[in-house]
Structures are given as structure tokens and as C-alpha cells.
Specification:
- By secondary structure, the chain is mainly α.
- The protein has a domain of about 40 residues.
- The protein is about 55% helix and about 0% strand.
- The chain contains 3 helices and no strands.
- The longest helix is centred in the last third of the chain and has 15 residues.
- The protein is extended.
Length: about 60
């Protein structure tokens, strides 16, 4: 996608996106505490892509063995 994300317009498209997401993706929520995890939150806010940053950290860890 370009700089702007495409908007899901109609109910059929929303249903198709929901079906794709159910079959191909997983949401893994994480809860961070404003006080005890302030350093993590501050560092994440500096990242242009939080998801990309976290995924790269995990892939780097996997590569270490």
C-alpha cells in the first residue's frame, strides 16, 4: 500500500478482509505498564514501525539460535 492505507468500503469487502485475517493472521496483545515499562514504551515510540521493529528483534533472536 502507499502512504495512505486503503479504506475498507462496503460490507462485502469487510467480510472478505475479516475472513482473510482469520485464516492468515494472529493478534498477540501485549500490555505494558506506564511506570515499570516506561523505558520500553519510550523506545517503541521512537520507532517508525513498532510491529516491524518487534518482528526484527524476534528474527534476530531466532537467528542467534
Amino acid at each position: 500500500m502507499t502512504e495512505q492505507r486503503k479504506r475498507i468500503s462496503g460490507p462485502a469487502q469487510r467480510k472478505a478482509v475479516a475472513k482473510y485475517n482469520a485464516a492468515h493472521t494472529k493478534i498477540i496483545p501485549i500490555r505494558l505498564n506506564f511506570e515499570t515499562d516506561a523505558d520500553i514504551l519510550e523506545h517503541l515510540e521512537k520507532q517508525s514501525s513498532k510491529m516491524g521493529y518487534i518482528k526484527q528483534l524476534i528474527r534476530d533472536d531466532i537467528a542467534k539460535g
